[in-house]
Amino acid sequence: MTPLILLPGMMCDARLFGPQINALSGRLPVMTFPLSRHDSVQAMADDILQNAPPEFALAGLSMGGIVAMDVLRRAPERVSRLALIDTNPLAEKSEVKARRIPQMAAVRDGRLRSVMRDEMKPSYLADGPNQGAILDLCMAMATDLGPDVFLRQSQALMDRPDQTMTLKAYTGKALVLCGQEDRLCPVERHQMMHELLSYSALEIVEGAGHLPTLEQPRKTTAALTRWLEDT
């Protein structure tokens, strides 16, 4: 069966997809790639293509989706199907770039935890009973990855290319999924990606924000299963 590659978001690792890995790994090969070694989306995509199987299904969340789109741009013939989760196909706006500069300065000064706690995580999640535990996991992933990864990933996001034409050219099976309450990558952005992709399904997950894989794991896994089984 075609392997599935999962690409995590900024300052996250394979734990972001823990429920999906547990549910799917008995049915098909599941791989994750860290996005921690390079400071450009293009270099991250090259790294994946050099180490991935010849053909694979590809799913990415947030920054992982941004890198997935660059993998698709470089080697569409290797991507059998594509899932984009809470992500953004557009180049970074100048005002967002400007906000990254003080964040990066703070992280260089040893304040990674405070940046993650005060400036980024409050926008991640919908209200729910598991919010505290998910935020704790996000902080653990971020601190395990460390400040150097934060700086490399921030630079990569600042310099990323627009991928609208990449999506418009793709003719494989695609899933566009987002949390209904995602404030970082809103529903409207996902409707745009759905319209760009010729053969895509759009799934809006109620009760989730930017991290539906953890906030609503059963709904997210069910959507990914439908995407993988769609013929």
Structure, briefly:
The protein has helices at 18-24, 41-51, 63-74, 94-108, 112-120, 131-145, 147-158, 164-169, 187-196, 212-215, 217-229, and strands at residues 4-7, 30-32, 56-61, 79-85, 173-179, 200-205. The protein is of the alpha/beta class and 231 residues long. The chain has one domain: Rossmann fold (3-Layer(aba) Sandwich).
Keywords:
single chain, 231 residues, alpha/beta, Rossmann fold, 6-stranded parallel β-sheet, 11 helices, 6 strands, 49% helix
Structure characterization notes:
The chain has 231 residues and is an alpha/beta fold. It has one domain (4-93, 154-229): 3-Layer(aba) Sandwich (Rossmann fold), CATH 3.40.50.1820. 49% of the residues lie in helices and 14% in strands. It has 11 helices and 6 strands. The chain has helices at 18-24, 41-51, 63-74, 94-108, 112-120, 131-145, 147-158, 164-169, 187-196, 212-215, 217-229; strands at residues 4-7, 30-32, 56-61, 79-85, 173-179, 200-205. It has a 6-stranded parallel sheet with strand order 2-1-3-4-5-6, sandwiched between helices. β3 (56-61), α3 (63-74) and β4 (79-85) form a beta-alpha-beta unit. The protein is globular, with a radius of gyration of 16 Å. The model has no long low-confidence stretch (mean pLDDT 95).
